[in-house]
Amino acid sequence: MIEKRAAQRHRVFKGGTITFEDGGIACTVRNMSAGGAAIELESPVSLPQSFTLSITCDNFVRHCRPVWRSDKRIGLAFVQ
Fold it and tell me: Which SUPFAM superfamilies does the entry link to (predicted)?
């Protein structure tokens, strides 16, 4: 498989929360880079075009948009 990412992702296993206008959902952050992350949800849900990813233990907050999805796993791009 050819790597298309601009920045290398690093494996992590951290609890996070995605928040949007109608509420929030707990997630597990599986990997991260300067430009995005992959998260895993407990069940497939419909998400808006953009939302915020927060990782409380790291004081990390980024606005995101989904770029790919595979069942309960979602790839995110951080929005500048």
Answer: PilZ domain-like
Phi-psi region of 71 (alpha: psi -120 to 50; beta: other; left: phi over 0): left
In this structure, what token pair is assigned to residue 49? 């075009």
**pLDDT reading at 38 higher than 70:** yes
User: Which two structure tokens, joined as six digits, stand for 35?
Assistant: 């430009």
53: tokens are 């990813």
> Which among 30, 32, 10, 24 has a CA at the least distance from the CA of 77?
32
Spatial separation of the C-alpha atoms in residues 49 and 20, rounded to whole Å:
10
CA-based nearest residue to 31, from 5, 2, 1? 5
- Residue 59 and residue 42: Cα distance in Å, rounded? 23
Q: Tens digit of pLDDT for each residue in 39-64?
A: 999 998 888 999 999 999 999 999 99
